[in-house]
TrEMBL record:
GO molecular function: acyltransferase activity, transferring groups other than amino-acyl groups
Signal peptide: none
Residues annotated as domain N-acetyltransferase: 18-201
Lineage: superkingdom: Bacteria
Upper taxonomic lineage: Bacteria, Bacillati, Actinomycetota, Actinomycetes, Mycobacteriales
Source organism (scientific name): Corynebacterium vitaeruminis DSM 20294
Protein's recorded name: N-acetyltransferase domain-containing protein
Length: 205
């Protein structure tokens, strides 16, 4: 694997952060989904379905993707696209907003112009090296919207690396304990103003 990008060394390994095209993303989707399954500890029974979903996502207007690699292996991936009120994900969030008495002025402002950070995953053996931090920075540097919005599973006390990373970047609550239709798990819907702070979070994923 070759390409230009930004480099940072970890224990003798040079990590490259590189935007990839829609076509490259679709071609790499099986490999990228494998990282997702490992990072989330999901069953491989989901693999074919997720590959199809990720490849479909790459056709969204304004789609952007960034990978981290060491020249041989992909170590992490993140992707997203501008939010749209025609999308199921946004419609679900709007449902949650109305069900909780909104939209407030702040919620209305965020949902008027946002980039949906759809997925960010780092291979388990490479977590804790700051790769997730850099992936977010690289991806969102490509976004032209006023805000970024993401969803992450709720955990007690926000005690996991994902929440620590998002909070360090200044993400705030849009909705909490929100349940998407078809998924019984509660999610936090978080947002941050763009551009993100240039500082590197102390808590790295």
């Amino acid at each position: 694997m070759t390409g230009t990008g930004n480099y940072r060394k970890f224990e003798g390994v040079t990590v490259t952060y590189m935007p990839i095209s829609r076509l490259e993303f679709a071609q790499l989707a099986p490999q990228l989904v494998d990282i997702y399954l490992q990072a989330m500890n999901y069953s491989r029974d989901m693999r074919d379905q997720r590959i199809t979903v990720w490849q479909r996502d790459s056709t969204e207007p304004g789609f952007q993707a960034v990978i981290a690699h060491d020249g041989t292996h992909v170590l992490g991936v993140t992707y997203g696209h501008p939010g749209s009120h025609s999308h199921w994900w946004t419609q679900q969030i709007m449902r949650g907003v109305f069900e909780t008495g909104g939209p407030s002025a702040a919620q209305r402002e965020v949902l008027a112009s946002f980039f949906e950070l759809t997925e960010i995953h780092v291979a388990p053996q490479c977590q804790g090296m700051g790769i997730g931090t850099r992936l977010i920075q690289e991806l969102l540097s490509l976004a032209g919207q006023r805000f970024v919005v993401l969803s992450t599973p709720e955990v007690p006390g926000e005690e996991n690396s994902a929440f620590r990373l998002y909070r360090a970047f200044g993400f705030e609550d849009l909705l909490r304990n929100f349940v998407f239709r078809g998924d019984p798990r509660p999610f936090a819907i978080l947002y941050a103003a763009l551009p993100l702070s240039a500082r590197l979070p102390a808590a790295e994923r």
